[in-house]
Amino acid sequence: MALAVAVAVFTQSARAEVLRLARFYTQLSRAGPGLLLRDLRRGEDTQIAATIAVIVAARADVVLLQDIDFDAEAAALDALAGALAASGAPYPYRLSLRPNTGRPTGVDIDGDGRSHRARDAHGYGRFNGQGGMALLSRYPIGAVRDFSAFLWADLPESRAPLVLGPEALAVLRLATVAAWDVAIDLPDGSFHILALHAGPPVFDGPEDRNGQRNADELRFWQLYLDGWSPDGSAFAAPRFAVMGTLNIDPEKGEGRRDALRALLDHPMLQDPVPLRPGGGTETADWPAPLPGNLRVDYILPAAPLVVRDAGVLWPLDDTGPLSPEIAAIASDHRLVWVDIALLPR
What we know:
22% of the residues lie in helices and 21% in strands. The protein has helices spanning 35-42, 46-58, 75-86, 160-163, 166-171, 209-225, 257-264, 324-330; strands at 18-28, 62-68, 93-96, 132-137, 141-146, 179-186, 189-197, 240-245, 297-301, 307-312, 336-341. It is globular. The relative contact order is 0.15.
């Protein structure tokens, strides 16, 4: 039976002067290929209904989605967009590119003697495209630079040789899920979304392979902002934001916080530190005491931009845009949003 949801939306003044960015780890991943599209078309899945309610409530202009299954024709993303439009949140422009999750390497990455299991893919996945990344936009999508195929070993001062054998070094990609530079064509010029979904720095052994990889996935964007790029073309856009699930908290939990701190403190970025209602920076609702609630999802706008407001859509009661129940059904992560002032040039 479909979940009935009543959704209130944010109200904003001077709407045309504000660009609302949002990112949301949706958990729109299923156990096999095509199952997400099936569930979307049936219209009876309570988790999908709750996810739609969250996205509608955020009322964002650009939404980066994590953990959404990919298909070559983008049929699932189109079906989701259709459901959003029917709920009053049209996103006519969309981007879906094949992720690294579930893409075979042909190499025994985890050392268990087999080379074609979920942990041997470029990013963990039981099938090609499981748990990918997608972008929804109210504005046209312009040029896209997809760095998802970039090899981990090719990153300057890569940590890959510390944790990978020769076979894996030759093939394993840096991005666990994906890494994009996407231009959004606003009426007054482009705004770039630097999108990523870094792998969790856990689920490995004492070699800390996933922790090392997470750190280098973050360092990729630090270097990119400094002028380096895989293809030699330096990034120079004045208006941008780094957005995604970085899977590491600044203070708690596991991970190599030096890489996160270097990104948060980068002179070209600012951290608006979005807060939950009532305070707190956590974005993931995980069991206590381990790992506990952590801040793992981020939007980091360019330092010169004016941030009007920011927040974590984590309702405390039924008086706001969503009920706590709906937010919890949608995902164990919470949507993060940031309002950017679009000042006259």
